[in-house]
Amino acid sequence: MAKNKLNKLVHKKSKKSWVIKALLILAVLLALMVAVYFLPPVHDRLAWRVYNLRMQIFYFFNPPGEESFTPAQQAEMDAIVHQTQTALALESTATPEPSQTPTNYVSPTPTATMTPTPTATPLPESKTLNGVVWEAQGFNNCGPANLAMALSYWGWQGDQYTTGDWLRPNDRDRNVMPYEMVDYVRQETSFNVVLRHGGDLEMLKKFIAAGFPVLIEKGFEDEVPQGGWMGHYGVVTAYDDATEIFLIQDSYVKADYAYSYARVEKFWQAFNYVFLVIYPPERESQVLSILGPYADETYSLQQAAQKALEETTTMTGKQQFFAWYNYGTSLVNLTDYFGAAQAYDNAYAFLDDEYDGYNPMWRITWYQTGPYYAYYWTGRYEDLIRLADLTISYSSVEPAIEETWVWRARAKVALGDLEGAIEDYRAALKWHPGWAIAESELSGLGVTP
Q1: Mean pLDDT of 384-398
Q2: Which of 120, 330, 388, 425 could cysteine-pair with 304, CB 3.0–4.6 Å?
């Protein structure tokens, strides 16, 4: 009897010991798996797959774009414009003629007389630039990877993680803006850079022919048909008039990715034909010569506005939405906020009509925040918050879009919601640690970042 009890006790202890050992082994294995997962080579290959799985689950239960953005404060703005026009009319002795151009619109024709441009040397029928070190981008690292590739052409020593540490302190950050790339080049390298909107295919070819790769931002959709429209950078390094093909160093697809002239133009339009050219300081005069009148930034913005306005009548479908959006972006850059707000209203109204309330462009404010500027500076804080709310809600499980958080915070401050604004500023800093803009806004409220 006693022996049986002893055997049972030994068996029980043995079983308990085995369970403890099994749990310890499992814990060690899990710890090893986590450690291996966060090794850079492994993490780069698996992180995006894990994220995509989480995103697909989220979007399955929360389909993006189901709710479109409909501005609600247009009537208020129209009333302000009407009151202003009435007041001006009462002060004027002449009868004003109605105009189709928005208030404060800057004519796209330069006021200064331009110096005649010498007859240009014909471009070669094709040109290929070698020397760009291609990189396959890490998770969400499109901007840093493309900036690193563009810099590598000039002998810069570094890679996408060198640029990424500065541009994206939090590697979950969704996007890097062109102006952030400009800041990096000017502050962290010995090179200079020019950023312009309203480019065209001829401009790309001129720079390539002269030995300058061009960094562009464009729409990205064909390569990710299940993902929906998104933005993407690319470094253009070659062209061939015979085949009408550009070669783009694409960090997502491959090196020397062939893009037809027509396809570049179509997808580049989504970002107002923006381009950056990096160059050694001693070659600045050559860059300015290639830019011609576009060396004057205001002139380039005026031309971009005129181009976008013309495309609102010649484009259809998504391209017409982009035309109105680009027009708004150009007017924001020219500080015509009322005109810009009207352009963005037209863009979203077109989208609502064209797609019966569905918004296929729900990601656009990840990359281009012009509507926030326009609505903020015209006092349309409720519209700004509504658009920001939708942008954040459609950002799946990780709303790592710090610009949207900051603009929503600013609108909340204007409406007296200081507590909500502070929360939003801190959310911006969560996704972009040390971001001077958010820290400055908090300091302005007397809050320690």
Answers
A1: 90
A2: 330
Same domain, 269 and 306: no
CATH number where 418 lies: 1.25.40.10
| SS3 state of residue 317 | helix
Residue 114 neighbours by CB under 8 Å, 6+ apart: 293
- Is residue 175 within 8 A of residue 365, CB to CB? The reply is no
Does residue 328 share a domain with residue 283?
no
Q: Tens of pLDDT along 148-199?
A: 999 999 999 999 999 999 999 998 898 999 999 999 999 999 999 999 999 9
Residue 121 lies in a domain: no
Residue 1 has pLDDT above 70, yes or no: no
Class of residue 10 by CB neighbours under 10 A (exposed 0-12, middle 13-18, buried 19+) = exposed
Q: DSSP letter at 292?
A: G
* 19: Cβ contacts below 8 Å, ≥ 6 apart: none
Round to whole Å and give the CA distance between 7 and 20.
20
Q: Is residue 91 part of a domain?
A: no
Judge whether residue 333 has pLDDT over 80: yes
**Residue 90 pLDDT:** 40
Tokens of 69: 């953005």
pLDDT tens-place string over residues 46-93? 555 555 555 556 555 556 656 677 888 765 655 555 454 444 344 433
Chosen domain end from 294, 315, 342: 294
Per-residue confidence (pLDDT) for residue 449, from 0 to 100: 86
Q: What is the number of alpha carbons within 13 Å of residue 80 lying toward its C-beta?
A: 15
Give the Cα separation of 269 and 116 in Å (integer).
29
Kindly state whether residue 342 falls inside one of the protein's structural domains.
yes
Residues 316 and 280 both lie in one domain: no
Q: Write down how long the chain is.
A: 449
Range of the domain at 269: 126-294
How many structural domains does the chain have? Answer: 2
